[in-house]
Amino acid sequence: MRTDKYTSEAICKCMGLPSFEADPACCNVPEAIRLLLMPSFHPEVCLTFVEGKVSVVCARFQIWRQFEPRPSLTDRAEGTIPAATFAQLRSSMVPVTRPGAVPGIVIDGMPSDLLHFQQGSVVLWTGGNPGAKGDFSAFVTLALVSAWEHISSSYCRNALAEAAEYVGKRLPREQEPQRKPTVETMVLGLPEDREQLLDALRKHHDG
C-alpha cells in the first residue's frame, strides 16, 4: 500500500471502526484511551479503553499488504477492566515524541499511534515505535497485558501476544477454535460509487 494512504484513519476504517479520532466510542464518553498498533510483520490491532471497559479489534490479515484501503476481516472482543487498571494506564501515558501522527513507515518494528480523549476532545495525540525499553514501550506493554488479561477471545488474545513480542513481552498463546467459512466480495466501479455501496453495506450490517 502507498505510505500516504496507510494512515491511522484509513486503518481503523478498514477494520470497521467509524474513525480513529472521531469514533463515538471515544468522543461520547468522559474519558478514553485509544492505541493503534501497526506491527511490521503481523496484522494491525486497535485497543480502546474507557473507564470500566476495554475493546479490542484485530485485523485477520495485514492491512499494510493491501493494494489500497478496503474493508478487512477482523476479530473483536470486549472486556471489563478495574478502575485501578484504567487509572494506571492514564498515569503511564508519557509522550515520547512531538504530538501528531507517527511519521513514515518503520521496518522491523511496530509504529503506534496513541490518542487520549477527555470530554470528547483529543487532549493528547502522540506515537512512536516502541521497543523493549523506554516510557512509551512500557505504556504499550501495559496496554497489551491489560487487554489480554480482560478479554476471552482466543483470536484476539493471540493477536495481542504477537504484538507484545515487539516490546519484548511474552504472553501465552491459546488454541484457537476452528473458524466458520467466510465469503469475501469484491466491489468494482468508480471510487465514489464503491464507497457509497460499502457505506450502505456497513450500515445494513451494523443495523
Describe the structure.
This protein is of the alpha+beta class. It is 30% helix and 20% strand. It contains 6 helices and 6 strands; from the N terminus they run ααββββαββααα. The protein has helices spanning 8-14, 24-27, 83-91, 135-150, 154-164, 191-206, and strands spanning 31-37, 45-50, 53-59, 74-80, 112-118, 121-128. A 6-stranded antiparallel beta sheet has the order 4-3-2-1-5-6. The two termini are 31 Å apart.
Specify the number of helices: 6
Alpha-beta classification: alpha+beta
Strand order of the largest sheet: 4-3-2-1-5-6
Kindly report how far apart the N and C termini lie. Answer: 31 Å
For the secondary structure, the number of strands is 6
Mean pLDDT: 86
How much helix, percentage-wise, in residues? 25-40%
Spans where pLDDT lies below 50 across 5 or more residues: 97-106
What is the H-and-E element order?
HHEEEEHEEHHH
User: Strand count, sense and closure of the main sheet?
Assistant: 6 strands, antiparallel
Instruction: State the shape.
Output: globular
What does the radius of gyration come to? 17 Å
Approximately how much beta-strand content do the residues carry?
Answer: 15-25%
Blueprint of the fold:
Blueprint: H1 8-14, H2 24-27, E1 31-37, E2 45-50, E3 53-59, E4 74-80, H3 83-91, E5 112-118, E6 121-128, H4 135-150, H5 154-164, H6 191-206
Antiparallel strand pairs: 1-2, 1-5, 2-3, 3-4, 5-6
